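Sequence in, structure out. Go.
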Amino acid sequence: MTHQLIFCRPKNSSVAFRCARLTLVACCCVFAELGSCHAAERLVTVEDAESEYTGKIVALNRARCTLMDRQGRLVELDVPKLKGMKQIADRFRADSISVFRTSLGAEFGKRYEVTGTTHYLVCAPQGRARKYADLFETIYRDVDKFYRVRGFKVTRPDVPLVAVVFASRKEFFQYCVRDNVPPSPGLQGYYSLVSNRVAMFDESGSLNAASGHNSGRHSTVLASSAVNGQTAGTIVHETIHQVGYNIGIHTRLGETPLWMVEGLATVLEPDGMRHRNSSRAVAGRLNSERYDWFRQKYLALHSSGSLAKLIASDKAFSRQTLNAYSVSWALTYFLLENPVRRRQLTSYLQALAERDSTVGYPAKERLADFITAFGDIARLEVEFIRFMQRL
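Output:
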């Protein structure tokens, strides 16, 4: 079983449009209009030769305009092909819940139902959505509280969060193809930065709290949700991603380093980590899978300078996947357990959020930002390894 965070860039929705290029003067006027709206996060309609898009401008340069629509989807447009824009309201407003429900109902048909909670709309097979929705909402509240009590800057989501639980792997894979996500045999679910949705499948039905599949990491969640271990694990991991990207911990644009994104997700998987008072023992806060791999596999191969490579590039996640996940978990756990390092981590995340999302993030800049937040990497690496060896 694998979980996945989909980092594919927004599909360029204007590629298929055959419209004449604007004159240089007209293009500059449109760019100026877009820029003024971006600053205030107003609700606008942007138009090209074939269609119009309503939402707020979330990234802009002279070549590309990225708009978040009223259901949270990102759309990337070519600025030279835009005809103009108009303001709809002073502030961005998401679609109403009734519009969301109607849209999801039309997309997935009568075999599926849509159930809402405070923060979620969950689409699942008839009779099953409520169980999943309760679990998504529980994880949302846990994750939101975790960040708040530790001093992280947290905001409210701009739009209701959507999760789709398919009845079969086949339906899930068909959706993956439509969503431009390569399906793979072990893929259980993913969170998409483009659609802002969690998508997954559960062929078992999952409505059996005493299924015998309970994992110690999710025992409290399972007891209250009646969702089995594998499905619960997928929901926990993907919800952590989705919530983090919607409450201001991460930004959906730009290039947030994967070690940071997956480090926080794997740290927050255990109940004992999310629930401040649920476990005083260290064992209750550890991600046992990641911890065991780190101690048994990673440390045996570790060499000085390995940490700098992880910070500088995401390549390890495709070349040495389990090593990358395990050391990312371990490093993030180490930073969160030390009050001084935790404050540095909040500053680091803020710096990542404030980066210009329209430019790349080369290794030199990644390392420089990390050093600005945490100091010398070699010294931190020694401190980190010693901490983990004593754990």
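Check: Residues 34 and 143 are 34 Å apart (CA to CA). The two ends are 28 Å apart (CA to CA).
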